[in-house]
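User: Here's a protein and a ligand (glutamine). What would the complex look like?
Assistant: Let me lay out the input and then the predicted complex.
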Amino acid sequence: MLMLVGFCLELVHYRVWVPMAKVHHRRGIEQATFVRARSLCRTASLATSTHTVGSVLKTYRSILSERYDQGEVRAITRSVFRDVLRWDAAQVETRKEEALSNIDSERLTVVLKRLGEGEPLQYVLGHTTFMGLDIAVSSGVLIPRPETEEMVDMIGKQGVAFQRIVDIGTGSGCIAIALRSLFPSAEVIGMDVSLEALAVARANGRSTGMEVEWLAASILEPNVGLPGRCDLVVSNPPYVPLTETTELEEHVRAYEPHLALFVNDEDPLLFYRAIAEKAMIVLVKSGQLWFEGHYRYASSIGDLLVRMGYKNVRVIKDLGGHQRFINATR
Ligand code: GLN
């Protein structure tokens, strides 16, 4: 029972500052705007006088608690102190009386201002962790989600040694890079239409020491094909219908790239169909297709794959209990 409670808390913890999947429920926008205005006034006061660590922590607590619960406020504050001052949690606790230099208070103020406006922590700090790897993120790429880690983990745990892997719509490159770390002898290719995303992905490949080939191409272009003889094609493509824009949490809609999130309402399976058609041509026999998708469409994606002649089609739930992943073999 305790474990279950711990696990649920973990999910709640992720939901707010590491958004779960791409689809969320809306929070009161009017309230958020009001909170933002008040937060800014108080953030400004942090910059104008000398500050002890304790007083900065207090300001962080009062501004962040307007958006986040207590546990999240603590986790966010620790991450900020770790990144900005290189202090661990114990140092934060034991050095509360110390005065901060003007430069350090200024840096903490700039970060708090952005967090107080609702910008996700990962964009503010410029990086996140995915499958134990440090992945840089900027406004041109989606923040990697815990669900996507679940998918990569499942792919890795099958006991199949993949040799040629393609990740379509690679964004930050998180999937391609994590797969390369799980299958060090595989040739991995990460594709994206966005040059901005590819620049981030390339830098991530370099900083993690993972060799991945990065390709700039749109999977929706009829003349764009996939590299031949793949044994794994994977994608977490844009899947939020435009009509669901208002259901997204404000921080997702306001900060994450719409190119990576949205698809037209008339054809929400557009990317899945295009990828599955092209994968059918290049996948070796028993090669695998893995998709992450919208919980409302996961079973339609499964049906689509069955109709296209894929075998062993499975629709798999995420840890939150939503139908989220689709796996099939050629
Ligand atoms: N593949 C990246 C991820 O899973 C980007 C996905 C996207 O931009 N739709 O985070």
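Summary: Residues 126-329 form a domain with the Rossmann fold fold (CATH 3.40.50.150).
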